[in-house]
From TrEMBL:
It comes from the Eukaryota. Residues 3-108 form the NmrA-like domain. This is NmrA-like domain-containing protein.
């Protein structure tokens, strides 16, 4: 399986921009040659998820990022991850679980960002 860049929160305000930019980079640079993008979303049936699924090297997967395990990351050959998490009270506990899973699985790079929509 190709090395994978995981984008958790792929259909959110920031995540969809990350997926689009990464898809374009995979076409134009050799740094990520052979990589694929795994775009995680709560609903793969939404319009944004469907648009992302049409991009080159992007696979949209319906999965709650808080349920990701080290075995799941290894099975999907995730070597890099981008996470744009929610802002609910359990955010830090869920993020800690995710980061520990990534560390245990040997994910090489993790980018974490916290965002909310403009009011």
């Amino acid at each position: 399986m190709a090395p994978t860049i995981l984008v958790a929160g792929a259909t959110g305000n920031t995540g969809q921009g990350v997926v689009k930019t990464l898809s374009e980079l995979l076409k134009t640079t050799t740094n990520f040659s052979g990589h694929r993008i795994l775009a995680l979303t709560r609903s793969s049936r939404g319009a944004t998820a469907q648009q992302l699924a049409e991009l080159p090297n992007v696979e949209v997967v319906e999965k709650n990022w808080a349920d990701i395990t080290p075995d799941w990351l290894r099975h999907n050959n995730v070597v890099r991850a981008f996470i744009a998490s929610h802002v609910h009270p359990n955010q830090f506990a869920e993020e800690s679980t995710f980061h520990l899973a990534a560390l245990t699985a040997g994910v090489q790079y993790v980018v974490r960002i916290s965002t909310t929509a403009a009011n």
